[in-house]
Amino acid sequence: MQRPHRFRLALTCLPILLFLPVATRGEPVAVIVDTSLETGSRQIRQFAFDGDAETYFASKESPSISDHFTLVFDRPVSVKSLSVVTGKPDQGIVGTLETGVLEVSADGKTFTLLAKLTKGEACEDLPAQPIRAVRIKPTSGQADPLAVREFTIASDHPIAHFKYPIEVAVDCSDSPEMKEWAEKVARTCELWYPRLNQALQSDGHKPSSYITMRISRSYNGVAEASGGNILGSSKFFKSHPDDVGAMIHETVHIIQHYQDRSNPGWLVEGVADYIRFFLFEPGKIGPINAERAHYDGSYRTTAAFLAYVADKYDPSLISKLNTMMREGTYKDQAFKELTGKTVHELDEEWRKALER
Ligand SMILES: [Zn+2]
């Protein structure tokens, strides 16, 4: 859940692009899927580049000559070879691109032919040249919906597979004016999904690959998440379009996937806001009132407390607390076990530090 913020910063003019993860040259190149095809049967776009040929993207409708399925790289990469396999696994020709082409682009805008697909597949070597995007396209209308099993790319610099495949499907059926905003925010949540999951990973946990994001006129809160669905208020986000962090907070709730109702609400919300304010938008948490703040103040207050304790005692504190809450074993005693001090002693110490 979200409460309206008391410490809102004036960010209304900042474009959403500012919220993209900052990539450095040493990291694998990030990829975005751009396609004109709507997803069918929750067979999401990112399954076409997740390193697993058994998973696949499926389109809802049969593609026409104007459709495309494109991987766009964060920056140009020298590609040595490229292959694509279409069609559903173990189902003959079902979902194959019967007549189509594999194309590449140096700038992400103008594409040139690399190969024609044969039996729904293509595999080609390339001369060393920077590539910004690769795509497949039908060269005639197709009889059936398309299935894209996997792109395989050999390059001089590693390209990041979708390790945590995700699709955030937008529903603005009662607030169509919010559709463009919601689609942008959905792409931001998808881009951040790997990092959010990395921060909250635990053994045996398989994150959801499909989230619905519904923006509603009739909802009177700010935003909430339950059962893999995010609900947001059109009224609130119309007047706070910069508040992408609120949707990141809800995305974190879906990743948390805590089933145990004995987990304290202040800590569940505190972890969500910790990820928001110390990973997604560092420096935006606003002032914390030392006189009134306590560790169990929830939301950003607890987030600031967790940041203090993690910084001073245990950098993996949040990961450990998350695992305990996911496994249903959390007790306040955990703070004593992890830091040597009770949560009340840590609270006193933190509040004194805030006063300085
Ligand atoms: Zn919440």
Automatic annotation (TrEMBL):
Keywords, ordered alphabetically: Signal
Q: Which residues form the signal peptide?
A: 1-25
- The organism's superkingdom is given as Bacteria
**What is one Pfam family matched by this protein?**
BSP
For this entry, the protein name equals: Basic secretory protein-like protein
